């Protein structure tokens, strides 16, 4: 046993004053308050969502210039598109107007052609009437015997003459068109030329030349296949084909077309023979 065991402690017992206890309690309370505040702050921070802030790039001078150039290019493209649209509209309007002008010109030309044909037909009828009067007067004095002298020739057409006659008779009923050469419309010389082409004879195209294409024959000595003409030889204005029996076939005018008529219907001025 220690030699001091029986001796009381020489230290004085600590006396805890009320102020010391209060201070220690305050310190402890402060610590606990700090811990509580820290815990609450951590809980609050844990509850709030984290927001990330992004910084936009600074608009530099080069980028600004590029944006301006892009805007200018867009405006220029829009202006060009508008200009092209205006040009297209103007071109379409001009084409439409040109089509109207062309149609009007074509109508005017058609009217002019129709009037010319009517004038020519009227002139031909007037000239034929004059020729008819002259020939009728000659017949009254015994100088003309066209129908009687040729009445027996209807059945004598053979060979090339028969082919020519068959051709012109096949066209009876076709239309008369100035400048027509077939196959469904003719003028007088076009019909005669086409008929003789069937037998290998190439006649001139117009009446004036056809009236001198062969040998001149008198009207009282006609044969089937002879070419009849109206007007002077070399200046004839109409031709037809004598088919025999006092008849002829010709493309007369726009009113009658191709017809077969007796010589008395429109007495010819002369005739030529090429067969």
Please describe the topology of this protein.
Layout lengths: L17 H30 L13 H80 L5 H5 L8 H12 L4 E2 L8 E2 L1 H10 L9 H4 L4 E3 L9 E4 L7 E7 L2 E7 L3 E6 L7 E4 L2
Parallel strand pairs: 1-2
Antiparallel strand pairs: 3-8, 4-5, 4-8, 5-6, 6-7
List keywords for this structure.
275 residues; endopeptidase fold (from Nostoc punctiforme)
| Largest sheet, spatial ordering of strands | 3-8-4-5-6-7
**Total number of strands:** 8
Strand portion: 5-15%
Question: Oligomeric status of the shown chains?
Answer: single chain
> What is the overall pLDDT average?
77
Query: What does the radius of gyration come to?
Result: 62 Å
Broad CATH class of the domain at 125-273? Alpha Beta
Task: State the share of residues found in helices, binned by percent.
Answer: 40-55%
CATH architecture assignment name of the domain at 125-273: Alpha-Beta Complex
How far is the first residue's CA from the last residue's CA?
186 Å
The named CATH superfamily of the domain at 125-273? endopeptidase domain like (from Nostoc punctiforme)
Task: Quickly give the structural class.
Answer: alpha+beta
Helix count from the secondary structure assignment: 6
Helix/strand order: HHHHEEHHEEEEEE
The CATH topology annotation of the domain at 125-273 reads as endopeptidase fold (from Nostoc punctiforme)
């Amino acid at each position: 046993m220690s030699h001091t065991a029986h001796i009381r402690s020489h230290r004085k017992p600590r006396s805890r004053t009320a102020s010391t206890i209060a201070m220690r309690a305050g310190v402890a309370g402060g610590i606990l308050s700090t811990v509580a505040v820290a815990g609450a702050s951590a809980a609050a921070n844990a509850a709030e969502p984290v927001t990330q802030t992004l910084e936009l790039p600074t608009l530099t001078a080069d980028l600004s210039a590029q944006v301006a150039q892009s805007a200018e290019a867009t405006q220029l493209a829009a202006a060009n598109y508008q200009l092209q649209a205006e040009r297209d509209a103007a071109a379409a309007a001009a084409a439409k107007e040109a089509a109207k002008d062309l149609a009007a010109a074509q109508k005017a030309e058609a009217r002019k052609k129709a009037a010319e044909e009517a004038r020519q037909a009227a002139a031909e009828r007037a000239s034929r009437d004059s020729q008819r009067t002259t020939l009728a007067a000659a017949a009254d004095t015994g100088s003309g015997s066209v129908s009687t002298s040729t009445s027996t020739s209807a059945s004598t057409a053979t060979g090339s003459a028969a082919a020519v006659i068959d051709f012109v008779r096949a066209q009876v009923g076709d239309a008369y068109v100035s400048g027509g050469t077939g196959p469904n419309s003719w003028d007088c010389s076009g019909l005669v030329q086409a008929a003789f082409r069937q037998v290998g004879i190439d006649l001139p195209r117009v009446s004036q030349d056809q009236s001198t294409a062969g040998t001149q024959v008198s009207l009282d000595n006609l044969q089937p296949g002879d070419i009849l003409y109206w007007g002077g030889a070399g200046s004839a204005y109409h031709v037809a084909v004598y088919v025999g029996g006092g008849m002829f076939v010709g493309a007369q005018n726009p009113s009658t077309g191709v017809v077969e008529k007796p010589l008395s219907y429109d007495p010819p001025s002369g005739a030529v023979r090429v067969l």
